[in-house]
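ok so I'm stuck.
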Amino acid sequence: MGKKVLVVGAVALGSKAACRLKRLEPDAEVLLIDQDEHISYGGCGIPYYVSGDVADASELQSTSFHMLRDERFFKDCKDIDVMTRTRVTAILRNEKQIKIEKADGTTSLLPYDQLVIGTGSRVRNLNIEGQELGGIYSVGSLRDAIAIKSAIASGQAGTAVVVGAGFIGLEMAEALGDMWGIETTVVEISDQIMPGFVGPELAKMAQSHMEEQGVAFRLGESVVRFEGEDGRVARVVTDQETLEADLVIIAAGIQPNGELAAAAGLEVGFNGGILVDERMRTTDPDIYAGGDCVLVPNAITGKPGYYPLGSLSNRQGRVIGDNLAGKESVSPPVVGSFVVKLFETCLCGAGLTLKKALEEGFDAISVRMCQLDRAHFYPTKELMYLELVVDRSTRQVLGIQGSGSKGDATVGRINAVAALLGRKPKVEEISNLEFAYSPPFSSAMDIVNALGNVADNLLDGRMHPIGCEEFAEKWEEIKRGDVCLIDCRAKADAKVYEEKYPGIWKGIPQDELLGRLDELPEGKPLVLICNTGVRSYEAQLNLRAKGHRDNVTVFGGVAMLKNWGMDI
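replied:
not stuck anymore, here's the structure
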């Protein structure tokens, strides 16, 4: 028999590390230990099980060839022993043992040669009065998901409140509203959804889309207490109002389960996450850790960051398995790529948002744009919205975020840039990034290339833009007559707005502008707009070449303003 390897935690990281080790070193004695009865399941699929898109919970625990990943599967197919409903209570590093406690209360010690910690994360405890009431759930495990779906299916929920507007919160809001028709409200303490992951414009666009689907939002509010009747939740009281609810989902962030490691004297970081090196070793060379319980370096800032992503856990598990078997592998710094489906659209991104980049000390700016996701002449096409964050002084690309109704197309663009971010690419690399081209799939000048060009134009001082929020402020000045708006689209497109806003909205097509300069008002600033921002930028160049410099163009034009939720 080979060396003895104990793996604490048997979901994504632990299962992957154990299986990889056994493939490389079949004589290793491997034991998986988990405190739950459900192991090796796809936690990111939980919202889709609750919604009904995934019919049975066992599908999240099954292989692609329909084998249930339970204790028998790991023993018969992988030659890996499994202990479920068993909690590891201590790591005795000097003795190279762990202490375990089984469901019946019995305890024992298990020796190891090498140890893997994959204890995952837990839903952050909000410590809110009344959170012990029935009908209040968190989404921390497959067991939680089964309980939530059972409650919904039994007719116990007509109104729901989701606390938190991050990944899980928004996915659960979609699941409750779309598939079950439950009147759903999302409460978020921040002033936008997906805080820390996308900028305010993309966040508001996604929020507007979800509101169109019937989900209500309460932003900038915090939950004060839960009130109940007959032992079940009935109301959610925030610092501003009271919401009726017979179902509550708490999805206000997660935190790593690093206490076991910390108690054993292993080094942990700012949020209690375990610190590891590039080979996923802890400060004890015989103990590895990965997944949702660790901190790893960010590829852009170099600082430790927390990235609880199932995809990253699987990659780290393979690296750990390699190193356990003596095959030296490293896990590179991460850029935090993500995507979340929200009804008929998605939000995705990689790297830093503008706000985060500024907090990290970069001289950062961002550019936004929208463009068709394929050739303009192809019959099926949709607008895609992207934001690029760059450092003004070095021209380094720091992050990219996007939204679009064709999720595969949108996330494909994000992934292309994400693959470059660790190399600290310049704007020019984005402008010239090679994409496969065919009209049913993309434009000859792909939207990512165009986004890089927009950043180049801004950095070089050729473009002078405003975003949606700034336009909303300018709109008040336009209505007062202090600022003149010029619609640079074709006459037919501008006519509807000219009739709706006589004397305020003036249409001058971009190709006629140079011949109609005498129609521009003397001494007034101009706001130039078109459908997506391309023609208004051309108009800006035309005007500035003629000495008319007091003008701005609108990022993304009318299309982005509409998607942002502005009623014009």
